[in-house]
Design goal:
The chain is of the alpha/beta class. The chain contains 16 helices and 14 strands. The strands form five sheets. Strands 2-8-7-6-5 form a five-stranded mixed beta sheet, with helices on both faces. Bound molecules: ligand F0G. The site of ligand F0G has 15 residues, from helix 4 and helix 5.
């Protein structure tokens, strides 16, 4: 058969309804930033022009999803939409038992409380803020076993989400398998910059954990995006469908927590998926205490319907190619302008390397927080800090964690912004880069106890 040339990615949708964006003035932004304590999480969205704070719950639903919203079966118990969601998860992800939750951290809470006991350790491929906190609240300690390359923003390893089996082995030798309730494996590792894990690595981790009888719990928040990188980078997968790769990833794990607000294209929703019936039984009982009955788990029937449809759309080839394609487009534009970003470009956003962007600031001057504030001030583009503020404090010593990665995340919502918006974002980053010497650091003046990055306040140094 004739090989047709593959064309450039393009948005695989046309626009049926629009939401007008707000243009802001420099004076307005300056006042808004001061009122927000230089924390982009504390800005009001009406003061934002292009919102790249997060890809979480910010995607645009399709006409099919909106039509599904009208099919909401709002029964307290046994809603039709729950069964549709359950079947869809079984079909596309392959897990047996499902507990719906209102979002990802609720699933993390439940699995942590069930599986982790005081003194346990949980190895994982880099921490995620809420995941680690729930592990700690259950009495556990997170141990990072991601490959060293993941902590180096310039290293171009194609699978920076891979687990270092030597590090994992050492954790087992030091603590013993009985103190490891599970290995936490994330796909498209968020804090590393949206970096994928390879299937060959996941298979090796599976073999190793089988030897020691340790389960694997999968943070599958961005599993389809990870599958896209496997398809495009891992030998042997170019001709496999995204859907087949997703199923293969899930089949190597024993259960999963899902924030459906990302990959699965809904504004709210999540679930815990399990293969072990006894763990499922406990989770199904616990969800009633914290979320709602086990056939809605904090979600309206219509939300579960939109989620079921969103899952099927999330693994479509055209969708995922354009979704990641848009992120790569912005990243490559910034690379071409000499802006220091994390490489390879990740799946859900472009991560600016704030240490290189602002070499005159030390880490205790919060370079990434300062840079996110400067970008907002320049153009009204809202980004977020992923550095020392997000990393929080060491659970045992109370000292600040000092992550090697000090990043600003430009997170791209799915199906929301166009290529021209990406051009405007790049122009603003270039502008800020050319005036980078004028950016001063910040001082933290209010620090909440948990997940401080969300609500901390800062002052200009
Ligand atoms: N795991 C990962 C990898 C995530 O990125 C998130 C959320 C969660 C779990 C928690 O899920 O928000 O539904 O409770 N990440 C968002 C972000 C907040 O902006 O990266 P949630």
């Amino acid at each position: 058969m004739e090989q047709r040339k593959q064309r450039s990615w393009a948005e695989p949708f046309k626009i049926k309804m629009v939401e007008l964006v707000k243009m802001t003035s420099y004076e307005d932004r300056k006042a808004a930033l001061e009122a927000a304590g230089y924390n982009t999480f504390l800005l009001r969205s009406r003061d934002v022009y292009i919102d790249l704070l997060t890809d979480s719950g910010t995607s645009a639903m399709s006409d099919h999803q909106w039509a599904g919203m009208m099919l909401g079966d709002e029964a307290y118990a046994g809603s039709e939409n729950f069964y549709h969601l359950e079947e869809t998860i079984q079909k596309y992800y392959g897990y047996k038992y499902i507990v719906p939750t209102h979002q990802g951290r609720a699933a993390e809470h439940i699995i942590s409380q069930i599986m982790i006991k005081k003194g346990d350790v949980i190895p994982g491929n880099m921490y995620f803020t809420t995941t680690r906190l729930h592990q700690e609240l259950a009495g556990g300690i997170f141990i990072d076993v991601i490959i060293d390359e993941a902590h180096d923003p310039d290293n171009e390893h194609p699978f920076k989400g891979d687990i270092d089996l030597g590090k994992l082995q050492k954790v087992v030798e030091t603590y013993g398998a009985s103190r490891i309730p599970y290995v936490c494996v994330a796909t498209a590792v968020n804090m590393a910059g949206g970096q994928p894990i390879s299937l060959s690595n996941l298979k090796a981790v599976r073999e190793f954990t089988n030897l020691h009888g340790i389960p694997i719990i999968h943070d599958m928040t961005r599993v389809a995006e990870n599958a896209y990188f496997i398809k495009s980078r891992e030998p042997g997968y170019a001709d496999k469908s995204i859907s087949d790769i997703v199923i293969e990833i899930c089949s190597l794990t024993d259960g999963a927590t899902m924030s459906a607000k990302k990959d699965a294209l809904v504004n709210i929703g999540g679930f815990l998926a399990l293969n072990d019936y006894s763990v499922f039984e406990k989770a199904r009982n616990m969800v009633v205490v914290y979320e709602g009955l086990h056939t809605y788990g904090g979600l309206a029937g219509r939300d579960m319907e939109a989620l079921a449809i969103g899952i099927t759309e999330s693994v479509e080839e055209n969708h995922i190619r354009a979704r990641v394609g848009q992120v790569l487009y912005l990243g490559n534009k910034l690379i071409a302008s000499g802006i220091p970003i994390v490489k390879p470009i990740g799946s859900h956003g472009v991560f600016l390397n704030a240490k290189k962007f602002l070499p005159h600031l030390t880490q205790d001057m919060y370079p990434a927080q300062s840079l996110a504030a400067a970008i907002y001030l320049d153009s009204g583009v809202r980004t977020m800090e992923r550095g020392i503020v997000s990393a929080g404090r060491n659970k045992e010593t109370g000292e600040n964690n000092n992550p090697n990665l000090e990043l600003v995340r430009l997170t791209i919502p799915r199906r929301v912004y166009t290529q021209a918006h990406m051009d405007v974002v790049a122009e603003s980053i270039e502008e800020v880069y050319s005036n980078r010497e004028s950016i001063n650091g910040l001082k933290m003046i209010y620090e909440p106890e948990y997940l401080r990055f969300f609500q901390a306040r800062f002052e200009k140094l």
